[in-house]
């Protein structure tokens, strides 16, 4: 995991846009942005110690309970991308993180994803405290990011600025 780069956050994943990710508009389909962000989450989790072996041995993992993706600029076939992660908050059972997807060569921000994930006991399927070593790993990464400013798009909401019609409110 890289902590210093030209991109905001901790670099957790990189790759190239694959042919099967391209939709009929000639750019990366929305579902594959989420897949790429999820690969970034998996890489970050491994840094914390949440590996397949950990899940198998402890019967604990994480579940995403909320996410919000913003699509800023399109990515096309074979273009390189980089995913970064910034921990916004965590407690004994939850983590709130913000990811950015950049065009790796041109440096522009292509998309962002904000996530809330829970630590779960897979036997009971209920939220459970992080194991101490995982909590320590989260804390170590968070400390490295202490000087990062809050993401501009954190907590963004969807809206039509000047609607001509609005549900539960009639005309604009």
Characterization of the model:
It contains 3 helices and 8 strands. The chain is an alpha+beta fold and 172 residues long. Strands 1, 2, 3, 4, 5 and 6 form a 6-stranded antiparallel sheet that branches. A hairpin with a 3-residue loop joins strand 3 and strand 4. The longest helix is centred in the first third of the chain and has 19 residues, at 30-48. The chain starts with 9 loop residues before the first strand and ends with a strand. The model has no long low-confidence stretch (mean pLDDT 94).
Features:
172 residues, alpha+beta, Thiol Ester Dehydrase, Chain A, 3 helices, 23% helix
The description of the largest β-sheet is: 6 strands, antiparallel
Structural class: alpha+beta
Task: Indicate the CATH architecture.
Answer: Roll
Q: What percent strand?
A: 25-35%
| Secondary structure tally: strands | 8
Radius of gyration: 18 Å
Distance N to C terminus: 48 Å
* Overall mean pLDDT: 94
**Number of alpha- plus pi-helical segments:** 3
Give the helix proportion (percent range): 10-25%
Q: Please give the domain count.
A: 1
CATH classification, class level? Alpha Beta
Q: Unreliable segments (pLDDT under 50, ≥5 consecutive)?
A: none
Give the CATH superfamily.
Answer: Hotdog Thioesterase
CATH topology: Thiol Ester Dehydrase, Chain A
Order of helix and strand elements from N to C terminus:
EHHEEEEEHEE
The shape is globular
């Amino acid at each position: 995991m890289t902590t210093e780069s030209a991109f905001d956050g901790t670099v957790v994943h990189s790759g190239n846009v694959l042919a099967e990710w391209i939709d009929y508009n000639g750019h990366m389909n929305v579902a594959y942005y989420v897949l790429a962000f999820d690969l970034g989450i998996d890489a970050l989790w491994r840094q914390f110690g949440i590996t397949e072996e950990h899940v198998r041995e402890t019967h604990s993992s994480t579940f995403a309970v909320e996410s919000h993706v913003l699509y800023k600029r399109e990515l096309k076939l074979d273009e390189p991308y980089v995913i970064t992660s910034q921990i916004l908050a965590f407690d004994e059972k939850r983590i709130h993180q913000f990811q950015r997807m950049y065009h790796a060569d041109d440096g522009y921000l292509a998309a962002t994803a904000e996530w809330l994930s829970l630590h779960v006991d897979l036997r009971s399927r209920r939220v459970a405290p992080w194991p101490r070593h995982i909590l320590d790993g989260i804390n170590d990464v968070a400390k490295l990011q202490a000087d990062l400013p809050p993401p501009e798009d954190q907590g963004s909401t969807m809206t039509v600025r000047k609607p001509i019609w609005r549900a539960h409110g009639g005309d604009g």
